[in-house]
Write a structure and sequence with these properties.
The complex is a heterodimer. Chain A is an all-alpha fold. Chain A is built from 11 helices and 2 strands, in the order αββαααααααααα. In chain A, strands 1-2 form a two-stranded antiparallel sheet. Chain B is of the alpha+beta class. Chain B has a 6-stranded mixed β-sheet with strand order 6-7-8-3-9-10, with helices on both faces. A 5-stranded antiparallel β-sheet of chain B has the order 13-12-11-14-20. Chain B has a 5-stranded antiparallel β-sheet with strand order 15-19-16-17-18, with no helix packed on it. In chain B, strand 4 and strand 5 form a beta hairpin. Classes of the chains: A mainly alpha, B alpha+beta.
């Protein structure tokens, strides 16, 4: 390994990522300090910016814990729904010969590339009609549906990499197709499944537009819309507070990435066995 | 258990892969489906196993019609080319899977898995995962899993193709031993003539979805039904000479042989000469040519002789000769062992 070349590479990468690192750094520093007006050097350390954790920042707003709970429910319900449908639908697309299979495959690729936000008005009307407008349930269903093409496509890739012979052997050993899937095939795609679970959880956690449009009320608020509301309402902007809330919102994402990096990489590796 | 496949037809979409094929395998017999890739031998195997639907014809195991039975209900054990072991299960769980499907008691499963592991000599590996095994050991696990539910028929799809040469030799006799010990009827699919000849009671040689000849290895080697069969069996392979039959056999302008006994053929025919029936050590009519290639093999040498008409014969000559490249020779041919084929390739 050429050490000089390595150092050049590291230097170049550092320069390019410096703006991002500086932004993240100040987000953290400013959330626990107070700079001089107009300056950037922290003057004194304090936790008042984090007051939203223990008091209500203004009377009309729901408690941050309630909102965090909503976000968690939203993200995990979405992830579970996406995974549940992906593992079955992807298996069917990968292995079963059913009418219009090609049509479904083509549709899947198209939906995967479709700018879903253009559907928002139609979705709004459908939810209104179903009585699910302004409820967490409604947003969960919509988010899960929009994430499904991606999930099915990824899982299909993992199923495709499982050798046919394993399935044939299982059938020959006397097991039903369902049992073969449950006991023999599903364990082979577990790395993909756990990556998809984490990935769709994060997608739900960071979703903003759907809750903003489809569940604007206080009851179904999630962290993204909560933060948006705090910023939009304030006549005298308190940037320290915004940064603290942003920090709080991003912490779980960072933690998940640090913990599950390897598994997430499985998705991009495209079906290698973990 | 006797296997009776009658008028079997298999289509994939609009292509007919196998048409009207019949095959019967006696109880306890081991038969090879031999042929080049794409000849339909694996398709036939998987039709018998139930994985491929049978589009026409019938299949009987003994007196029982199993033509429409799903693979789960057929008393068949299959060993796949890549073994298809379940990677997430231990060896014991792999072998026990067919029994767990039958909902047997854990104690019973454990006993039978143990028995089977002893039979294929992997009793000490039961706790391992398939990735931790060598190719030969994986093969043994696959055999144990195929045999554990005591099927009537054992099907082997190119079982030795993924093994290195030394292990292949070992597993060849091992599979034959297991087949004899269990007395199971077995069908082996292979493209390797040596595997087919050394392991099986009979060989069905296939070509383009048909059985070209079905016979014992010795008989098929001695009396090939067609030029195709003669060319497929034998290593080093048989040499073919174009000749003209007109009272005698004329090969080019310079060589002629008497017609073998009882042959009344006229016109263009093909001579098949195996390398072990041509050379200076034989008795019979002679053929003149020039040595064009010498390939030492240790115990014996393979020597190519090019005839004046530019056709080529191959001879096996015991080592220790003093034949040189380019030397003109006039060697003998064991005429009684020469095969004659007509223009269409059928045996005369």
């Amino acid at each position: 390994m050429n050490t000089k070349g390595n150092w050049m590479l590291i230097l170049a990468l550092s320069l390019i990522s410096a703006p991002l690192v500086i932004m993240y750094g100040f987000q953290l520093i400013d959330s626990v300090s107070r700079p001089a007006p107009g300056g950037i050097i922290p003057q004194e350390w304090e936790l008042t910016n984090w007051r939203f954790l223990w008091t209500s920042i203004d009377s009309a707003r729901p408690s941050i814990w309630r909102v965090t709970f909503n976000t968690f429910v939203f993200a995990s319900a979405t992830a579970l729904l996406v995974c549940a449908f992906s593992i079955t639908a992807a298996y069917a697309l990968s292995r079963l010969n059913f009418p219009a299979r090609r049509f479904f495959l083509a549709g899947l690729i198209m939906l995967h590339a479709f700018p879903t936000i253009t559907l928002i008005i139609a979705i709004f009307i459908v939810l209104q009609f179903l009585g699910l407008y302004d409820s967490l349930m409604g947003v969960i269903l919509v988010k899960a549906a929009l994430e499904l093409p991606f999930g099915i496509w990824i899982m299909k890739g993992f199923y495709d990499s499982v050798p046919w012979e394993i399935e044939m052997a299982g059938v020959q050993d006397g097991a039903s197709r369902f049992r073969v899937w449950r006991e023999l095939i599903l364990p082979q795609v577990k790395p993909g499944l756990s990556a998809l679970l984490i990935f769709s959880f994060l997608a739900g956690w960071s979703e903003f537009i759907l809750p903003l449009v489809l569940a604007p009320g206080a009851d179904a608020q999630v962290l993204a819309t909560y933060m948006n509301a705090v910023i939009a309402d304030d006549t005298r902007p308190d940037y320290g507070l915004f940064k603290a809330i942003g920090m709080f919102y991003a912490l779980p994402v960072i933690a998940v990435y640090l913990l599950f990096q390897k598994r997430l990489m499985n998705i991009y590796g495209g079906g290698t066995k973990g | 258990m006797r296997i009776e496949l009658q008028n079997f037809t298999k289509r994939f979409g609009d292509t007919t892969v196998i048409e009207d094929m019949s095959l019967s395998v006696a109880s306890g017999e081991m038969i090879a489906l031999l042929g080049p890739s794409g000849c339909g031998k694996s398709t036939t195997l998987f039709a018998i196993s139930g994985i491929h639907r049978i589009d026409g014809g019938t299949l009987h195991f003994g007196d029982r019609d199993v033509t429409r039975l799903p693979p789960q209900d057929r008393p068949v054990g299959v060993v796949f080319q890549n073994y298809a072991l379940y990677p997430h299960m231990s060896v014991a769980d792999n072998i026990g899977f067919p029994l767990r499907v039958q909902n047997l008691k854990p104690a019973e499963i454990k006993r039978r898995v143990g028995e089977m592991a002893e039979l294929v000599q992997i009793g000490n590996l039961l706790a391992r995962k398939p990735q931790q095994l060598s190719g030969g050991q994986q093969q043994r696990v696959a055999l144990a899993r195929a045999l554990v539910r005591k099927p009537d028929v054992l099907l082997l799809d190119e079982p030795l193709a993924n093994l290195d040469a030394k292990l292949r030799l070992e597993m060849r006799s091992e599979i034959r031993r297991l087949q004899r010990e269990t007395g199971i009827t077995a069908i082996l699919v292979t493209h390797d003539q040596i595997e087919a000849m050394s392991m099986c009671d009979r060989i069905a040689l296939m070509k383009d979805g048909r059985i070209e000849q079905i016979s014992t290895p010795g008989d098929m080697y001695e009396r090939p039904a067609s030029r195709y069969v003669a060319g497929f069996l034998g290593n080093p392979p048989i040499s073919f000479l174009r000749a003209e039959a007109n009272g005698q056999l004329t090969i080019g302008a310079d060589n002629a042989l008497p017609l073998p006994h009882g042959t009344a053929a006229r016109g263009p025919i093909t001579l098949g000469v195996r390398p072990e029936h041509f050379g200076p050590q034989h008795r019979g009519p002679s053929i003149a040519g020039q040595v064009s290639f010498i390939e030492p093999q240790g115990r014996e040498d393979l020597i190519d002789v090019t005839l004046p008409c530019d056709q080529r014969l191959r001879a096996i000559v015991p080592a220790g000769h003093d034949i040189a490249l380019g030397q003109p020779v006039n060697w003998q041919l064991d005429l009684s062992r020469v095969h004659l084929f007509d223009a269409e390739g059928a045996r005369l």
